[in-house]
Amino acid sequence: MAESHSIHAGRVGQTRPAIIRFLEKIRVSETSSYNGVPCWEWIGCIHPLGYGQFRPDARRNGGKPQTSPHRWAYEFFIGQIPEDRECDHRCNIKHCCNPLHLELVTRQVNLDRRTKRKTHCINGHPFESMGKLGSKRICRTCAHINALKFYERHPEQAPKWFKDAKESDASSPLVT
Fold it and tell me: Residue 8: its pLDDT value, please?
């Protein structure tokens, strides 16, 4: 009986170096760049949030934990990432792992930049219609539409202005 061999390993039980596996899973973008330098798009496993996933030692159990390829690339090509810093994608492409597109910033700076980058809510309403409810950002247009739908379903809880508007113009619905 023949000995089993890994398709990707040079010898039985050996894995290829992480840098080789990393480079095989990036594609130099023809359309996305930052400061004239193209993005390195991760074409390996991508988390539902849009960030890549990479196992530096290729072992599922007992090996180094999974990391994001952009963090791995930064540490491989540039240097350690301090505990109090995280990588901010200056190109705004979550699956880009070009270390030249990454800047080490505090968590708060990264969150502030992300908030400023958003121009529309998840339903496509422009940023101008955004407001704040405590620490949570809300879209005023969506909140208004949802309130009108709620009052349609629960007229007993509707405010007077809603009932008056409904009675004065029964032919046109308030919810668009």
Answer: 47
